[in-house]
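Question thread 4412

I'm putting together a teaching handout and wanted feedback from people who do this every day. The idea is simple: show students a protein as raw sequence, then show them the structure tokens that encode its fold, then repeat with a second protein so they can compare. Below is the first pair exactly as I plan to print it.
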Amino acid sequence: MRLLARSDVEQRLHSNGLDQIFIDPLLDRSQIGEVTVDLRLGYDFLVSVLTRKPFVSVDRSDHEFRSIESYFQSTRRELGEKFILYPNQTVITTSLEYVGLPNDVFADIFPRSSYARLSVQFNAMVQPGYRGCMPLEMANVGTNPVELVVGSRIAQCRLYEIEQPADYNNYPESRKYLGTTRPIVSRAPEDTDVAILAEVRRGRC
């Protein structure tokens, strides 16, 4: 495994082969740093909301189960508009950029230092061969609301080259967030092991 430096990323951006890294729109070449690529905040947000339910269930057989979407409210902002991230709030959004990774590159995504210092936290690992806007699952772990601007450089990603290519698209039935351009809530209820464990539990009762 090897961390891609600026020259590697630049070379792959200009490649027309299977090793190409695709980022669009890349509004400013300064987004490409020495060992990271900056990503901008996208337009669409899924905002967590309080409900009367005592907890979020991921087991469809649970009598407390309800659609995960019902715990979130959708909202949209235009480029340059502001979005407030409140303390103890989870917001699912995406990067402004649509990214295509080749089969030998994966990405780690985390906040730029300027936003981490404001208590904005998120972290994701994106598989080789991924296509879509990068997921940003944000939380404000501080005590003050934070104002974010759509289109601002909020995230950065490290790109790693692996020796053995691994195509994200080979197993579409297990890829729950493939090719997304808007934020998507957790699809944990679709995990087969959750249903199997529910059967095991019922067998013991």
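The second pair follows. I'd like the answer to focus on this one:
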Amino acid sequence: MRHQLKIARWAHVLSAGWVFFLALLIIADVLGRILFLHPIAGTKEILQNSVIAVTFLQLPLAIYSGSMLRTTILLDNLGPRAAKTLRVFAWLLGAGLFAAIAYASITPALSAIRLGEYEGEGAMRIYTWPVRILLVVSCAFAAVAYVSALIADLTGKHGETPSAPKPAPKSPAGANLT
């Protein structure tokens, strides 16, 4: 699991760098529109595909760190055994969902490669296959992350991953500092 966590962190760093690049692209596009009356060709298509890529690159680390969206109102009111049963169900459901997305996305990704599928017209064409392949790989990785979390939960090591969120520090007055 340590290697998986390292890969998930690198994917997260890659997505952060990608977001920084997108911010620079947006600024350059806006300045190009205002100062030179000429936007950067393909900005819309790049942003459109990048939002998907950035989101799915962050998935595995969110799963490993326990940061996926969840509601604990029910879980907090259950006994330990029922809570564990519900968590196991959630891990299985998450793994199944992302495995199904990965499986369903393989054929369109291969078709995009074969056909040279792109978005945009005119001067700038953005190929869609890199994002489609990234979607397949990151969803498969997310499914593996859920299975790893399931195994950790069943073996009693749930919450012991090095990237698990730590409680926010409290000031002497008891106020939350975050």
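Top answer:
Good format. For the second protein you could add a caption like this: The chain is about 70% helix and 0% strand. The mean pLDDT is 85.
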